Amino acid sequence: MTEYATAVDLPDGIDIRPATHDDYDDVVAFTTDTWGEDSDYIPDIYHDWLEGDDKETLVADAGDAIAGIAQVVMLSETEAWTQGMRVNPEFRGQGIGTAINDALFVWASEQDAVVARNMVFSWNQAGLGQSRALGYDPVGQFRWLHPEPTSGDLPESVTDNVAAGWSFWASSDARTELSGLTLDMDESWAMRELTPTMLERAAEETAVFVVTREDGTKGLAFRTRTYERENDEGTLEEWAEYGVGAWADIQAAETLLDAIAVDAAACDADRTRVLIPETARFVSDGALLRANISEHPDFVLAADLTADSLF
Length: 311
Description:
Layout: E1 15-18, H1 24-31, H2 42-49, E2 55-61, E3 66-74, E4 79-87, H3 96-110, E5 115-121, H4 125-133, E6 137-145, E7 158-159, H5 162-170, H6 173-177, E8 181-183, E9 191-193, H7 196-205, E10 207-213, E11 216-230, E12 236-247, H8 250-266, E13 271-277, H9 280-288, E14 298-304
Parallel strand pairs: 4-5, 12-13
Antiparallel strand pairs: 1-2, 2-3, 3-4, 5-14, 6-13, 6-14, 7-10, 8-9, 10-11, 11-12
């Protein structure tokens, strides 16, 4: 089994290595209640995390316990995404998180990644501070809109013209604010650079919405996926997720969100979420249109894997 060297001097008996299915119980023991009772997703997806060649899940093995865990996923040929960093409370303050993250960077670099990104909730002070200390710099922030699914027809000004949509996105305020990032179509809660090829894939596999008017193209959105999630009452709900909502003005925003609402209803979705830039204009547009804004923004950070200082 591969073991990873690290620049951090870990206590004797602790090694960084790939996670195995046999580690499940030890990982669950310190991840189940990360933010409150049964609040963490890792126990639910742990075994899935270990499948596939485009990812690496690492643990800090302390012999009689698992001291920490995190994962890195390749989202494209050059973009890596790190997630799920958890340190066992009994081992905090010993450099565990730094050692695991160093190993994630090494693995990603060996896959030819030039950047590694992560996402941290804006309220997570410890997570934000740790990310900065590990070499990540802030690159963007976003919030969710949750328009209600509504049966009907798509607005006449909405098309699936990928070329027009890309042209709008390339010079849009939304692209600038998000550093070109939108939700990935395969990995949940992950962001990568939107490309024409990715937008073409969305047009073929899910849906693309482009607002075109007499004065030009004014909006873009695309659906990344639909999925089921259990609500607070224990009932499964169908969600429709949209990788970005970008618009030039309030009229385009209204048209775009109307199209999303119709599409979500056609998908038999109970709820939606649409990623938008965390700016006063985009968020207040959502408020004006009563699109159900999430309570807190999320922050995206990135580490330049070509920097010698990271290794």
